[in-house]
Amino acid sequence: MLLKENYRFHQKDTGSVAVQIILLREKIQAEKVHLVKNKKDIPVKRALLKKVAKEKRFFQYLKRCNPNVYEKLKKELK
Fold this sequence. Notes:
The protein is an all-alpha fold. It has helices at 2-7, 17-37, 42-65, 67-77.
């Protein structure tokens, strides 16, 4: 994904907060697609809720530590 490349510090960066948010967003989108097809898959629904909560915590941390990147990433993910 091109968005991920914009926020990486180096080629193999997967640990910075912005990149983790982008990776979580990709997983969340994939699970949403799965849940549209399989509405009764409770474990996936629970995993989705956990990922959304984790993404929210990452955003809170990013807003506190680096508000410029937070604002930029929020706009690009919408």
